[in-house]
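DM from R.C. (forwarded with permission)

"hey, sorry to bug you on a friday — could you get me a structure for this? deadline for the figure draft is monday and I only need the backbone to look sensible"
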Amino acid sequence: MLYILTALKCEAAALNGIRGEVIVTGAGGRASDRISKIGLKANDLVLNAGICAGKNKGRGYLIDQVISDATGRRFYPDILFETDAEEMPLTTSDKVVTVVEEGMLYDMEAALICEEVLKVIPPSNLVIYKVVSDSGDDFPSPKEVTELMGRHSGEIKKIAEIMSGLSTEKSYEFLPESVAGELKLSQYMRNELRDIEHYCVAAGRQDELLSILDRMRNDGRIPVRDRKAGREVLDEIYSRLR
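My reply, with the result:
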């Protein structure tokens, strides 16, 4: 089943006739509650389509990285197909962003959606498509949002059709189970390690991650002495893979 998630009713209004079930999640924290009630299964597909803040008003982007401003956690949708859309990272904030930077998009729900759906489905089953509606200080009216999303409905429809035809039988886990124990990771930190693992598979960097871990073992930094040291190692892995 393909679920098309939008935060706002005015976004969803432009998506009639597109394959999949359109669900309005609400913005911000409400999205998590709504998604948890869908009943996702491991082979389901999720397309999050909506507006965002950024520099190039009217442009649509596939999101290749989602960063939670609240937690620092990063998510990496695995884009298995090509379209004409440019790829761009996105930051999710729990506050309205009024200043945008070049090379970054901003919204209030993508990281929350990632956190919920990636508990169940693999990164290859998640696609995020965002349309720049404002630069942080000129938010459009609901009517303008519907019109803007309507101009991108053809691209969103094409993505939905491609997703529905994809074969997504792909493993995203390659690290030995012992790694989490070596790093004394909490459950939250284990989720972060899983996100790193998923990214490395999507980017073809599995050997690089394994090499980083081997060097840390050779330097005597793994196994760690406590959870704080595990946090430091995890942060360094993030830094080396950027």
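R.C.: lifesaver. The chain has a mean pLDDT of 91.
me: no worries. The longest strand covers residues 45-53.
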